[in-house]
Design goal:
Order of helices and strands: EEEEEEEEEEEEEEEE
Mean pLDDT: 75
Strand order of the largest sheet: 5-3-7-8
Number of domains: 2
Number of strands: 16
Distance between the termini: 45 Å
Structural class: mainly beta
Largest sheet: 4 strands, antiparallel
Number of helices: 0
Radius of gyration: 20 Å
């Protein structure tokens, strides 16, 4: 399990990475792989059976993943340090959990799996600080009949000094849209509405070392 730092500010969103490697001579199947946080929440996650899984994953992990001998499964999870949790009452930490199944039927026969064991790493302790005004992100969301425009600064009106990222959810009568944008050097993003229906857009912006901000706005489509 890899974390970018061991010190964060309350309200920060950060990416935790994990790798499960099969060192046994048998095919294994992993279920319920999760990176979770005490004093925080999961924003989005995903695991894959090969390569590196990130925002390219079509959906968060569901079902099971088979891992061949010597192969690895990779995962990336966005975690959110909750801003309202007190460091005096909560010990912040990140842990990884996975359940392993072992293949017991040889190739060419009926596939069977034998329950293995639950593996857990962590919790890795985190040091959480209260953000200053210069570490608190502020977002301005403007909309019209054509689309939306988002501008992110700190509470002092300055562009953050680290790369800025963000995400969005668009709710429509015909479905749900979800995406991730960034990094944006100037903290500005815009897009057209995905159709003519009235929409509700929910966006957030985050940057390393900054407390994130969330915005919700409802508007008519084009």
């Amino acid at each position: 399990m890899y974390l970018p730092r061991d010190s964060f500010v309350a309200g920060e969103i950060f990416e935790a990475q994990a790798r499960f490697q099969n060192l046994s001579p048998e095919m294994v199947q992993i279920t319920e792989p999760r990176l979770a946080m005490t004093g925080g929440e999961t924003v989005t996650d995903g695991f894959s059976s090969g390569g590196t899984c990130g925002w390219g994953c079509p959906t968060p992990f569901a079902g099971s993943i088979r891992v061949a001998p010597g192969a690895s499964s990779f995962g990336r999870t966005l975690l959110h340090v909750l801003p309202e949790v007190s460091t005096e009452t909560v010990e912040y930490g990140v842990r990884m959990h996975v359940h392993v199944w072992r293949q017991v039927a040889p190739p060419g026969t009926t596939l069977a799996w034998e329950a293995g064991q639950d593996l857990e790493v962590g919790p890795v302790p985190l040091h959480v600080l209260s953000p200053t005004a210069a570490q608190q992100l502020h977002g301005t969301l403007e909309t019209d009949t054509q689309g939306w425009r988002l501008r992110a600064t700190d509470e002092l009106g300055r562009t953050p000094t680290t790369p800025i990222f963000g995400g969005w959810l668009v709710f429509r009568r015909t479905g749900l849209g979800i995406g991730r944008f960034g990094p944006g050097a100037d903290g500005t993003w815009s897009a057209a509405w995905p159709g003519d229906d009235p929409v509700t857009i929910w966006v957030w912006v985050d940057a390393p070392g900054y407390a994130s901000t969330k915005l919700v706005h409802s508007a008519a489509g084009s």
